[in-house]
């Protein structure tokens, strides 16, 4: 069996992970068999914030991102009145360490370099050792067309 692949997909507040009020809104991870691309395990989390934080992040986002997450309902889903918002990054890190601990497992996804940049700023421990093996599905698609 070849090495499995770790797919990552993020929904974010924009293009720049370092801008003021930048944040990850949703994180999806999927471990895929490297031979036949069957999904072995997957997990996803919506990151929640206090309503004032979500309003501020939404206001700082560009029009495209604002409308995209308005349409999908993600802004609303990320806004919680509970005293403690849900930041599932510890759960995501534990998931990666449990099912994809080997840093030789390539990080994959559509425009994965974008997602890797966000992870490097907001969740760097998920990248432990995964700095050079990237497989960009959107680039492959372009090359095959």
Description:
The protein is an alpha/beta fold. The protein is 38% helix and 21% strand. The chain contains six helices and five strands; from the N terminus they run E-E-E-H-H-H-H-E-H-E-H. The protein has helices spanning 51-60, 63-72, 74-78, 89-99, 112-122, 137-144; strands spanning 5-12, 24-32, 39-46, 107-109, 134-136. A five-stranded mixed β-sheet has the order 3-2-1-4-5. Strand 4 (107-109), helix 5 and strand 5 (134-136) form a beta-alpha-beta unit. It is globular and about 45 Å long. The chain starts with a strand and ends with a helix. The mean pLDDT is 90.
Please render the helix and strand layout as text.
Layout: E1 5-12, E2 24-32, E3 39-46, H1 51-60, H2 63-72, H3 74-78, H4 89-99, E4 107-109, H5 112-122, E5 134-136, H6 137-144
Parallel strand pairs: 1-4, 4-5
Antiparallel strand pairs: 1-2, 2-3
Short note summarizing the structure:
The protein has six helices and five strands.
Mean pLDDT: 90
By DSSP, the count of extended strands is: 5
The gyration radius over C-alpha positions equals: 16 Å
Order of strands side by side in the largest beta sheet?
3-2-1-4-5
Largest sheet: 5 strands, mixed
Q: Treating each run of at least 4 consecutive H or I residues as one helix, how many helices?
A: 6
Shape: globular
Instruction: Give the H and E element order.
Output: EEEHHHHEHEH
| Distance between the amino and carboxyl termini | 28 Å
Classify the secondary structure makeup into a structural class.
Answer: alpha/beta
Instruction: Assign a percent range to the helix content.
Output: 25-40%
- Low-confidence runs: none
Strand content: 15-25%
